[in-house]
């Protein structure tokens, strides 16, 4: 992959495949993008506003130029008349937003609707469902903007049972969605999945959700950038926050090129949140690596042999789930969880496990040429749900993160809600994801990865053997 040029003609610093947000002091400065399919096929990034070159006074700073940060800037300008300054350490949407699977689903966080009810009761769960559904409507409206050409593949989402024992749970969840939430899912048998969607050898049945969409993740991010700048936001790349202080009610964010003074700060750094970024974000997430691959284009005969009749998002029922689909150019994409640490991310065994998983589902793809292979950090919160919040009412500091791998769609709405809060118009946002801070692991923080390693072994046993 060729390195992108940055302002002044300087080549970007090489991509670091072992970067680890748990231990790295920052996400780098002027680093190249990960070698993803999205970056490889999106074309050159649109123009941005270049690095911060001098001290600046602004009303609002947004830290992070991924989907959430750019959506926040878009909605600050469009709905509140605030022209934000967005600070990005590397290139636009360098982190999660160009390393995901491009799957937009009607979800946010890792919990199912039944788990929402267990945690908060039926009334709150229904209101949260309406919030997520509204988010999907917003997402559809945003990608219809002329700046955004993200190759949407609309048509729903298929949640595929990878073992017989998973079907009762899917049936129960489908009934709950239909009867309690009024959301029209349906259960499909194995034969129906194979006939009407795809011949996934593992499939024992599935739950179909009418809302789901595949998108080109890179084109989506670049479209958000163009829209944000048209509305008046400034997006400063290669401007990592390397120091923070607060004095006399103002926030001072130091970058290599100058200090930015702001009335309010919104953090949208997700899985790339450094431990030293700000005290209110420190150790509030558990970054988890996800691997993804994209094959060479399949021939029409290969597509027909798999009976691929859809390009909608597909996920399976593993705890460490696989997410996969056929791309618009007939390449096959699949991803799943990966290494525990950044230092181990380049270990070939993680790619091998993903290839084995692909071959279990589609034996005819065993040995197929892989054109793109990458990994990225997913922002999992300690209670598996996102937060869009002002964690300390005494400080004009806000954040939106913790989507758990389900942020492609809801990040648009999260950015809009974040903008509302920053603008002082957060009244009525009374759901738990708005009114509480991201939880902290406290004394367990140094041992989180030991727990993660043990859980991964347990999840594998439960998903594959027990």
TrEMBL record:
Is the ATP-binding keyword given for this protein? Answer: no
What InterPro entries is this protein classified in? FAD-dep_OxRdtase (IPR006076), FAD/NAD-bd_sf (IPR036188)
Keywords from the named record: Oxidoreductase
EC number(s): the record gives 1.4.2.-
Domain called FAD dependent oxidoreductase: residue spans: 59-421
Keyword Oxidoreductase tagged:
yes
Q: A GO molecular function for this record? A: oxidoreductase activity
**Would you tell me the Gene Ontology cellular component terms?**
cytoplasm
The UniProt entry, under PANTHER family, shows: FAD DEPENDENT OXIDOREDUCTASE DOMAIN-CONTAINING PROTEIN, SARCOSINE DEHYDROGENASE-RELATED
Name used for this protein in its record: Taurine dehydrogenase large subunit
Protein species of origin: Aquamicrobium lusatiense
